[in-house]
Amino acid sequence: NIKGCLALLMSKTLFFLLVVAFVSTTFAQDFLVYAPTNTGTGAIISSMGRSFTTVTAAQWSTLTVNDFKKYKAIVFGDPTCTGSASSSLPTTNLANLYAATLGNVMVIGTDEVYHKSQGGTGVLKSGLNFVASTTGKTGLYVSLACYYHGVSPTYVPFLAPLASGGKRFQVTGVGCYNNAHIVATSPAISGLTDSILSNWGCSVHEAFSEFPPEFIPLVIARNAPVSLGKMNFADGSVGLPYIMVRGETVAPINCGDKIVNSPEECDSGVGCNKCKCATGYTPQSPAKQDCTLIDLCKTVGYSGKPSNAISCVPGVNTRNITCADGWYPEAHAVGGNQRWVVLTGTTAFGGCSLLNTCTAYGFSGKPANTNRCVASGTSRTIYCNAGYRAEGSAGAATDNVVLAGSAAFKGCTLIDNCAVYGYSGKATNAVSCSNAVNSRTISCADGYYATAPASASIVLTGSAAFAGCKVIDMCAVYGYEKDPNVASCENLINSRKITCKAGYWAQAE
Q1: CB–CB of 143/112 below 8 Å?
Q2: pTM score of the predicted model
Q3: Among 183, 263, 264, CA closest to 220
Q4: 119: which of 196, 234, 237, 430 fits an S-S bond (Cβ 3.0–4.6 Å)?
């Protein structure tokens, strides 16, 4: 069947196209390289067995955050010590770039591609592997090449969005400096040594005299002239850093020796991670092995909305806020009747909102014979159907109960109308009382009526009063069928006496 075969072929072709489309939008190249800086960087990437795409300066401004996130890392390589920062690095679309690059970051102050045969290839390869290694996040590799060679201290506009804690990237030209020294351990410099990094002729072109606190110096220009700036490092060395990274796999050289040396914030103590205080902790002053837990209840607290909040308990980078009974943290979308919320970091507390107690607590799993629930403030009133008593209420026949906060409802129970209302104080000649839902049936003795003129029983609804048992007017009710020969009828209890006229005798049917 040719039509059938054609349909199958088209179906398979469509499936293939769908798969290809899915792959193309799900799996991107390893690296996106900014073309003006790609003078040999792409060739080294290919030699690593990894893939890349270049983006021109004209295309750059069109890229969205999601476009950047399709790559494991964005790369600004060394254009072999040519060009300037203003001509080689983009000045637009930086907000999208930095919003997307939340993974590992490496910034270096040398021309590694130009010196690829002297150790630069190792710097580039290990750096690229590092920035592309954060699962689910896009990294960033920035080579400042020779852009700031010989300049006085100046801030780097391209790196400005990385500023934090009042610190920015400030670079100082160090001339052709050749004494490189590793001061931290990291996969970013895997396989590299001081000797590999030194004596390139110009191992270092610019070093950082100021940088954001999240960045860790990996390699320094050791013993650079003091006039350029001076920093002390944990291994006792002095200089300015020129290779820096942001990531979780970095630790100073002497980290773990239980001695806190700059730039370490701590060493092997509580809250200390790779000699930096972990999230939720802050360094002690002076610095010690342990970090101090940040009490977010004191520093952030109730965010100015303490009304009806009864407690705040600090944790590691968290705080647990509890609202009073009948209130809940509505703004944080906690479910049901949950009165507490755990907030991370400095997340603002939205305040305690009045809880709809009927919605939250309702009938406590005992809805049988309930009529309605009415919420009011921090309490709720539950009403039972007619003939039922609300358990916990004060009266023996009260159909409702007011419950405060989360107090449990105990259910509705059938009212014993005979016990509660009984004969209404008129029990004479009454012989029985039987219960039903919201009613009672009272029966009178023979010869007495509960319902005129002669019914011995009556059904009373709810608390309706019983009028008592009354003697049946036997003569009026049953009489003598208007027999003209009857002289009189006399009422007795449950009987009547009929007397005939003279000359007549009485007989029962």
Answers
A1: yes
A2: 0.56
A3: 183
A4: 196
